[in-house]
């Protein structure tokens, strides 16, 4: 989480809002690689797609019997599914900015699933265009798998790894823990369901697409797409350790190339550490940021058909990027965000494509996995002779990462430690800390106990998430999943946190030395979310990342201890305890966000009528805009479809050339009055051929009389690109 939330809002939402939480939408329907930044997409009655396909539904997913390996080392399957949540009036996840609520779509969000298996075992890796994978998501997906007779014999929570790209431009409200729903007016079931169903569908498709094949691996350095945003903390690490590395960020990209036995290219997945935060906290359009766009570019190069059940899938997965920013030019400024996103996306795309094309080292060896749950709230760490702490967020958490996206008002500065809160030299901060601590101490006395404060060492706890509760459940998860999946001589470490560069290096080195394998990658933000993970030295400086390391100064040592157990079990072929089962908090969820009451349009207007027509003629490269009378996108999120199509005339028929997933288009919703909705569609014509075009908008409106939801669509006048 990269914060740019007004600090007073962050604190008040996390404290006061919690108190508030727990005391307690009938009308007629009417009708860098610029060439890659424009494709695909639908006329409801006579649709022709540029790739020749039709939209496919879940009903098309028939039972498929997995083939035998034959002479190939692995079974390989890939799948992709839409997970784009509500495109209006839902708080976005990542910046914790209460004013940042969805108002449309720049690009859709996707779940990309990969299954690799040998003769005896299989593993699943999913990279999802989400801010985080919360424990609620892993639990719900695991339940769906367990009740699916086709999937249950092969997959469970133990061998399924769910990882988030960490885009900050997606809707939130899908955690079961209070802290992460505080800025979204609580739990948003519509978004939760879309995410769970989409991830499940992508896994199902990957399973049904299993074929014998080979996995190739390649690595290379990408040196100009990231920088360290917390140098003060990084430089606290021992100089001998820092000198061992060429940079203060991990610049290695690891690429897997998946190829069927007959030579058909199936997919690509890579891991590279960089935050997807080029698009800043003023943005209100859904999108995947630099990693989502990089995936789009790669997939368009490979002819991906997003409507097909079987197609090429390319994931740009997340790694140890906790202190790594893509904002080489300084914080996002709301002016150049998308242009800078395009640059960082293109750099990742170009490097990944180069490594993919030259990948000739074959992955070999068995497939295996280990998974366990560990209670980190009071875990004894033998290497330091003490325990971790009940979770707490430090004072510097309220500052956000000022190097990445500065807060508008200071509450506490980064670097605020227990020692810096001195009444003589820093009376203002000392007062704020004392006042808040006193309030919280009345509610939760253990939050001001000496043992709790001493456990967190340099961190002055601002929000005691591990002890604060009204319903018996803490505000962040104490029991977390740890997992290693092994594909031949590659190991993937699933860490449920944003991992700093050096913390990732240490865990990776530990596991690699135990398993003696050739390749080890960190898959951060996986299976659950517990904010950040830093080294002990970085923690001592209490920058934003250290203040967000929830379980205290020895959190990394605890991770090393537990990952060492998993790695040793893999090496020795032994089992590990499943650990304590985290509770399912489904029935504890609360929301203050209302649904759509009804939709309406002005007198003598119909849903889909065009309010503002495009001009009749545009020069090539111009932007085309049209405005429709529409309805609230929450009525139907059009999963697997599109709110906007750009159609090109071909004789007597029309071909869809772009949809709302394409970065050449934007779909923007705006409330007009009480129940009216205006839909603004924009299309960048750059790289599209000259010709005659039109814009189609589709949606669904809700009757205020019956509650019935009805589809509508509208189309503009024709216009030409010259």
From TrEMBL:
Annotated ranges, domain Neutral/alkaline non-lysosomal ceramidase C-terminal: 563-721
Pfam families: Ceramidase_alk (PF04734), Ceramidse_alk_C (PF17048)
EC number(s) on file: 3.5.1.23
Catalytic activity: an N-acylsphing-4-enine + H2O = sphing-4-enine + a fatty acid
Keyword Lipid metabolism appears in the UniProt entry: yes
Highest taxon of the lineage: Bacteria
Signal peptide interval: none
Domain Neutral/alkaline non-lysosomal ceramidase N-terminal: 74-561
Keyword Lipid metabolism: yes
PANTHER family the record matches: CERAMIDASE, NEUTRAL CERAMIDASE
Name of this chain's protein: Neutral ceramidase
Source organism of the structure: Leptospira yanagawae
